[in-house]
Specification:
Layout (H helix, E strand, L loop, with lengths): L2 H14 L8 H19 L3 E6 L8 E3 L9 E9 L2 E2 L10 E2 H7 L13 E6 L2 E5 L10 E6 L19 H15 L9 H8 L1 H16 L12 E2 L2 E2 L2
Parallel strand pairs: 5-6
Antiparallel strand pairs: 1-8, 2-7, 3-4, 3-8, 6-7, 9-10
């Protein structure tokens, strides 16, 4: 589906709403960029298992939403160096917490540069490689949930294909329409407002968002039990 296809659905929805709404094409396209980003972050519907990561010698922290990664990511499951996934302290593919690094690696922030052995979530969208790389290793990538690229707000973006699966496009269109309508003094959550246009679309997005929350799929572990070389310290 292209942006033109999706915005045709959006336009029909807002026109039938009987409420004031954004009409300028550029403003609608800006709103779409915001809404597709929010939709992907709330539902985590765009999984990528091979997002290239560019390492810098001596740099330990990397922003998952910056140019270090070939795509913006809202959550990282694991990072691989030279094609080999980094593991946690149970020797399973995945991340560790900063608390685990502190418990297991003496003066971890001042360790000499070397081939990274662990990846940890720091906060916000920042992840740490430990130790910081001593070389620009090849075939480095992350696996996790991606965020869509912004489309041009001028007509050059109209016929570009969206990154979303077809089953998400109706809910995305409704979610976008909600963001274009002037709800004035009417209260309600986005999900409640989505039901004004389409109950199935609202339920689809809400169920996906609840599944993300129920899995505690926030970016990596902060606090909780600390593991020291495979043993839980509670």
């Amino acid at each position: 589906m292209t942006r033109t296809d999706l915005m045709a659905i959006v336009d029909a929805l807002v026109a039938a709403s009987g409420r004031p709404y954004v009409t300028a094409a550029v403003d609608k396209n800006k709103a779409f960029n915001r809404r597709q980003l929010m939709y992907a972050e709330k539902t985590r519907c765009l999984y990528e298992d091979d997002v290239a990561l560019t390492l810098l010698i001596g740099q330990g922290t990397y922003d998952a939403r910056s140019g270090s990664f070939a795509k913006r990511l809202c959550h990282i499951d694991h990072i691989a160096i030279e094609g080999i996934p980094l593991t946690n302290y149970q020797r399973r593919k995945g991340l560790v917490s900063i608390e685990e690094l502190q418990a297991n690696e003496f003066a971890y922030l001042s360790a000499e540069n070397a081939r990274p052995l662990r990846a940890a979530f720091v906060g916000g969208s920042t992840y740490r490689l430990w130790p910081a790389p001593d070389a620009v290793y090849n075939n480095c990538f992350a696996a996790g949930y991606a965020l869509p690229a912004d489309l041009p707000t001028d007509p050059s973006g109209d016929n570009l294909s969206l990154e979303f699966n077809e089953e998400d496009c109706e809910a995305l269109a409704v979610y976008t329409a909600v963001g274009l309508v002037d709800w004035q003094s009417t209260s309600g959550t986005d999900y409640e407002r989505m039901q004004y246009f389409s109950v199935p679309a609202a339920r689809h997005m809400e169920s996906m968002s609840k599944e993300v929350a129920s899995q505690h799929a926030g970016p990596a572990v902060r606090g909780g039990a600390v593991t020291r070389m495979g043993a839980s310290l509670g």
